[in-house]
Amino acid sequence: LATGPRVVFADEPTGALDSLAGEQVMAALVRAARTSGTSVLVVTHDAQVAAYADREVRLRDGATAGLEVGA
To answer: Do residues 57 and 69 make contact, with C-beta atoms less than 8 angstroms apart?
Structure first.
């Protein structure tokens, strides 16, 4: 976020972390993104990580399976 990107792409950003470290990483990422006005697109299989999202798009077999706003 130091270079001021408009969008950050994060593919399984907490995949190798325990749950506490994952929550800390996500809280820091969300805080930094909101402070800077940066959008973050996260790919995850973890419901706890998905809970940080403002919008959630679910995919199944390569197709959109659901959309939630205010997730």
So the answer is: no
Domain 7-69 carries which CATH code? 3.40.50.300
* CA 35 distance to own-chain centroid: 15
Instruction: Determine if the pTM surpasses 0.90.
Output: no
Tens-place pLDDT, residues 7-35: 999 999 999 999 999 999 999 999 999 99
3 state SS of 21: helix
7-25 in b/e form (b: 16+ CB < 10 A) is ebeeeebbeeeeeeebbee
Domain assignments of the chain as residue spans, ordered by start: 7-69
